[in-house]
């Protein structure tokens, strides 16, 4: 009798019926609307963002952990489980949900005016408006404090100039939360993407996260009314708080890619015969599977612990860094190891493992590289900042 990896220590016993029901709904959505098309999306480097967003919105997945404005108001743990199931389908799909809800919507929800919230959040929760989050720049990835994008006053208006790079959803977005340097410091702006002077160019030739829409944003003399500024977003802590929200989702999401890779390897090892018996019966294969299962469960327990802390209002940014650093690093190792179990078939798109491994190379980098999270943790341990 075979046992699924997460059943080894019965993690389902740690969840409420409501949490498990939400997980089941998201799993069905992934089975019905992601798995049938994701291989083609990945191979073609295109994803039907708008159609997919509408399907995800039907079950309340966009901004699901926010309250009001048509959002579901789900718990942090429920949101984490949703991210896990989405990334079991593909990291690009979880990225769509993360950027929409934890970055763009969260920024407007937490720092926006009542008018901005009323204008954007209901439509974004319904999947009728797509958002993006413009923080990273071509020359300033891990060092957002050095951003070159500027916003200057011109009468009652703002004029924005600069550029952003590696922005998920940018080519199809209706609104961009753009961060810029002003005389008073870093500020955020809700920028309708059709505004004159805004250009979004899709990034092509990616070798990872291909089932995701990624773009470059160019801002050339973009004139915005004073009402476009997010009134409560002051300083770099504002965008960093949004990143913490997104990083928390990744803590869970990476486990989905790892779980799907491990399930695939288990099924394959049980049916693939060499030397007269299934390769699952060889010691080296079982050692690989056992190690992967143990790391997956450890990562799951870490994610769940952080989720419970988040639901109590006790989660700190450095704790999220612990989760992001560990779980993405281990998920990538699991995917790579599972690829070896599949042998040559491991590089075929018939199986999802190589796609997960390639995607996790990007997840390892975005929302803070592993090195950045090591430094966040190091600063907490030593009291000394070592970023420069």
UniProtKB/TrEMBL annotation:
Q: Which family does it belong to?
A: Belongs to the acyl-CoA dehydrogenase family.
Gene Ontology biological process terms in this record = fatty acid beta-oxidation using acyl-CoA dehydrogenase; fatty-acyl-CoA biosynthetic process
Give the organism, scientific name.
Answer: Dactylosporangium sucinum
- Domain Acyl-CoA dehydrogenase/oxidase C-terminal, first and last residues per copy: 234-381
Q: Which residues form the Acyl-CoA oxidase/dehydrogenase middle domain?
A: 132-222
Instruction: Kindly state which keywords UniProt assigns to this record, in alphabetical order.
Output: FAD, Flavoprotein, Oxidoreductase, Transit peptide
Domain Acyl-CoA dehydrogenase/oxidase N-terminal per the UniProt entry, residue ranges: 16-128
Judging by the UniProt lineage, the source's domain of life is Bacteria
What the entry lists under Pfam families is as follows: Acyl-CoA_dh_1, Acyl-CoA_dh_M, Acyl-CoA_dh_N
Has the keyword Cell division been applied to this entry? Answer: no
Q: Which cofactor does it need?
A: FAD
Gene Ontology terms for molecular function: fatty-acyl-CoA binding; flavin adenine dinucleotide binding; glutaryl-CoA dehydrogenase activity
Mind telling me what this protein is named? Glutaryl-CoA dehydrogenase
């Amino acid at each position: 009798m075979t046992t699924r990896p997460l059943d080894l220590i019965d993690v389902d016993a740690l969840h409420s019926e409501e949490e498990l029901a939400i997980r089941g709904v998201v799993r069905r959505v992934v089975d019905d609307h992601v798995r049938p098309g994701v291989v083609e999306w990945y191979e073609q480097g295109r994803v039907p963002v708008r159609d997919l967003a509408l399907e995800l919105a039907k079950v309340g997945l966009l901004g699901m952990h926010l309250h009001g404005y048509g959002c579901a108001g789900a718990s942090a743990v429920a949101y984490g489980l949703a991210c896990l199931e989405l990334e079991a389908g593909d990291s690009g799909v979880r990225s769509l949900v993360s950027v929409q809800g934890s970055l763009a919507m969260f920024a407007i929800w937490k720092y926006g005016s009542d008018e901005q919230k009323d204008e954007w959040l209901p439509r974004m929760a319904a999947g009728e408006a797509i958002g993006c989050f413009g923080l990273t720049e071509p020359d300033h990835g891990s060092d957002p404090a050095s951003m070159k994008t500027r916003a200057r006053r011109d009468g009652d208006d703002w004029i924005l100039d600069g550029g952003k790079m590696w922005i998920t959803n940018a080519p199809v977005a209706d609104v961009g939360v753009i961060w810029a340097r002003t005389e008073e410091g870093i500020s955020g702006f809700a920028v309708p993407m059709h505004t004159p002077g805004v250009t979004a160019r899709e990034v092509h030739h990616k070798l990872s996260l291909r089932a995701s829409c990624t773009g470059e944003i160019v801002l050339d003399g973009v004139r915005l009314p004073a009402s476009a500024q997010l009134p409560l977003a002051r300083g770099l802590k504002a965008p960093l708080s949004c990143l913490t929200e997104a990083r928390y989702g990744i803590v869970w999401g990476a486990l989905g890619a790892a779980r799907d890779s491990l399930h695939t390897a288990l099924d394959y090892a049980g049916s693939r015969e060499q030397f007269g018996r299934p390769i699952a019966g060889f010691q080296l294969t079982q050692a690989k599977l056992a190690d992967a299962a143990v790391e997956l469960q450890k990562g799951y327990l870490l994610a769940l612990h952080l989720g419970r802390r988040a639901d109590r209002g006790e989660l700190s940014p450095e704790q999220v860094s612990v989760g992001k650093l560990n779980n993405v690093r281990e998920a990538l190792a699991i995917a790579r190891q599972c690829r070896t179990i599949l042998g040559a078939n491991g590089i075929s798109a018939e199986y999802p493992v190589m796609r997960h491994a390639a995607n996790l190379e990007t997840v390892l980098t975005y929302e803070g590289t592993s090195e950045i999270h090591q430094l966040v943790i190091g600063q907490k341990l030593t009291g000394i900042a070592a970023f420069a």
